[in-house]
């Protein structure tokens, strides 16, 4: 057998590949046709096919407020900050933003066949929504701002959004802020009163912003909102100077500003100290006014009330940091229940109002009136203070008392009412820092019967300890600055509970909870609003 010939490098170098005819067609004919066909196919795939598959336009929405939701019929398509693709055709689009009147428009969308992959067709849609109720829209943004204010320091997981300054910007761009200072008057709300339906003045707005800011991060949003509100969205050197004057006026006296700066911006406080040559003094004038005096009693609707005359009270104004920025409040004549509402009294309320029974908790949660801990410790009628009731539930109880009595109105006490009554009952001013009451002793697992720790000088039981008590007021970290025109996301609680150690709660201790919150440490007592 012959040995196979080995292939050498020379054979490889000399080898040639030569195309032959294809179906009788010469190479010089079919090869150019093949190249041309391939080029046409590539151009078709890149320049024409995308236009066939997505024949339409990207709609870009320009208008205010921003961002607004875009709907086609009932289908949500995206927000006005996005480029949204629509196939060619005619659409009925609806633009919506909470607090504004929605706008419906018919839009005819065209398409482009050639080059849409590289240069997609874009079509601009212009809209402009009008405010339905500027005051209500601003109130909602304020409540959200206050909720973020109490959420703690931002982190890598979340940042505090500029919700209020964005809302002010939206109102300014619609022209809704142009008449605010000429139509709005300073009109603080009393306990239980509705928030004003008109826009507040720039000064009152700045005051309420200062009162709700509990962190340096929310101060940033508040400053932007105040400047935008004062200038009606048109920032100039003149309007900026006016905004600064408004903010300074809102912060009030030197003591209040010093404490505010120390809590929220320690660097600023040190700068003030260096400029003045001494440290800012933070003091409370909580003993400056004469103590009010109780004036008799009245029994109504199953409760006994200690009566107080109209007067002025110096409030402690405790901030989350513990700083005291005192301020004065005028209280109308009122009565405060001698004891907290008991389970037996609450059972009577539920008999007339079965929607508040524990069996209906799921529905109450769905309505946002309570949370999962509603009446969690409920064991039936007894004479212990009722706990696990929300602010909404406590308010409903007071409304029930009013309906039963006919001529009298009942409600939760304001912070000023509560603090007036509490100061009246103190043995002396020194006991404000360590008041008597039912406190934690390491053995208690719940509240005691009302009056177990005795009664104060005015004849009221358990203003300190036993259970914390709901007030009618929104919780403001710095109430001394407030104009009282907006509601925050939380309600104030006062007094301390059986789980607090004595000395950990003072006359001025206060906190805030969402109005749907229920806990085993929290109850309430009603106030007589028209004695």
Structural features, described:
With 531 residues, the chain is of the alpha+beta class. It folds into four domains: 16-51, no CATH class; 54-131, Sandwich (Immunoglobulin-like), CATH 2.60.40; 134-251, no CATH class; 297-528, paralog of FGE (formylglycine-generating enzyme) (Alpha-Beta Complex). The protein contains 14 helices and 20 strands. The protein has helices spanning 9-14, 27-53, 134-149, 163-173, 180-183, 202-212, 216-230, 237-251, 254-264, 266-276, 343-352, 361-366, 391-405, 415-425; strands at residues 56-64, 69-72, 75-79, 83-87, 89-96, 100-101, 103-109, 122-128, 130-131, 297-300, 303-308, 311-315, 327-331, 334-337, 410-411, 468-474, 491-494, 510-513, 522-523, 527-528. Strands 10-11-14-20-15 form a five-stranded antiparallel sheet. The chain has a four-stranded antiparallel sheet with strand order 3-2-5-7, with no helix packed on it. Strand 2 (69-72) and strand 3 form a beta hairpin. Helix 3 (134-149) runs antiparallel to helix 4, helix 3 (134-149) runs antiparallel to helix 7 (216-230) and helix 6 crosses helix 8 (237-251). The longest helix has 27 residues, at 27-53. The protein is elongated, with a radius of gyration of 35 Å. The termini are far apart. Residues 184-196 and 271-287 have low confidence and may be disordered.
Radius of gyration: 35 Å
Task: Specify the helix fraction band.
Answer: 25-40%
Going across the major beta sheet, what is the strand order? 10-11-14-20-15
Instruction: Flag low-confidence runs.
Output: 184-196, 271-287
Number of domains: 4
Q: Any idea what the CATH superfamily of the largest domain is called? A: paralog of FGE (formylglycine-generating enzyme)
């Amino acid at each position: 057998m012959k040995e196979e010939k080995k292939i050498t490098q020379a054979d490889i170098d000399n080898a040639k590949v030569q195309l032959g005819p294809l179906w009788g067609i010469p190479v010089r004919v079919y090869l150019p046709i093949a190249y041309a066909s391939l080029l046409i196919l590539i151009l078709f795939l890149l320049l024409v096919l995308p236009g066939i598959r997505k024949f339409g336009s990207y709609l870009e929405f320009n208008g205010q407020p921003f961002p607004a939701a875009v709907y086609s019929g009932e289908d949500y398509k995206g927000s006005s900050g996005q480029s949204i693709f629509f196939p060619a055709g005619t659409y009925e689009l609806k633009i919506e933003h909470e607090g504004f009147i929605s706008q419906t428009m018919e839009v005819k969308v065209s398409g482009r066949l050639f080059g849409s992959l590289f240069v997609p067709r874009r079509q601009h849609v212009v809209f402009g929504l009008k405010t339905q109720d500027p005051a209500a829209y601003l109130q909602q943004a304020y409540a959200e701002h206050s909720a973020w204010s109490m959420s703690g320091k931002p982190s890598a997981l979340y940042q505090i959004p500029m919700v209020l300054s964005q809302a002010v910007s939206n109102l300014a761009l619609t022209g809704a802020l142009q008449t605010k200072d000429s139509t709005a008057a300073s009109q603080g709300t009393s306990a239980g009163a509705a928030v004003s339906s008109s826009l507040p003045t720039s000064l009152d707005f700045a005051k309420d912003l200062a009162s709700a800011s509990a962190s340096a991060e929310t101060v940033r949003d508040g400053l932007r909102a105040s400047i935008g509100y004062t200038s009606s969205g048109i920032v100039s050197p003149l309007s900026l100077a006016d905004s600064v004057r408004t903010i300074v006026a809102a912060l009030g006296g030197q003591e209040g500003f010093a404490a505010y700066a120390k809590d929220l911006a320690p660097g600023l406080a040190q700068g003030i100290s260096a400029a003045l040559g001494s440290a800012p003094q933070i003091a409370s004038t909580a003993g400056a006014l004469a103590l009010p005096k109780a004036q008799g009693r009245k029994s109504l609707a199953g409760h006994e009330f200690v009566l107080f005359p109209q007067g002025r009270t110096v409030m402690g104004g405790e901030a989350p940091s513990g700083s005291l920025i005192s301020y004065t409040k005028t209280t109308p004549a009122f009565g405060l229940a001698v004891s907290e509402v008991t389970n037996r009294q609450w059972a009577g309320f539920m008999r007339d109002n079965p929607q508040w029974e524990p069996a209906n908790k799921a529905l109450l949660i769905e309505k946002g009136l309570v949370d999962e801990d509603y009446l969690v410790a409920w064991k039936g009628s007894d004479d212990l203070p009722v706990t696990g009731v929300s602010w909404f539930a406590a308010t409903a109880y007071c409304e029930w008392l009013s309906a039963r009595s006919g001529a009298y109105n009942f409600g939760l006490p304001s912070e000023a009412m509560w603090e007036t009554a509490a100061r009246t009952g103190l043995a002396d001013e020194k006991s404000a820092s360590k008041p008597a009451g039912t406190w934690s002793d390491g053995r208690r697992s719940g509240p005691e019967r009302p009056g177990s720790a005795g009664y104060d000088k005015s004849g009221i039981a358990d203003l300190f300890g036993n259970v914390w008590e709901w007030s009618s007021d929104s919780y403001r970290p710095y109430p001394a600055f407030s104009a009282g025109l907006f509601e925050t996301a939380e309600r104030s609680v006062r007094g301390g509970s059986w789980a607090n150690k004595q000395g950990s709660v003072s006359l001025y201790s206060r906190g805030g909870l969402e109005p749907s919150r229920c806990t085993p440490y929290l109850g309430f007592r009603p106030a007589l609003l028209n004695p």
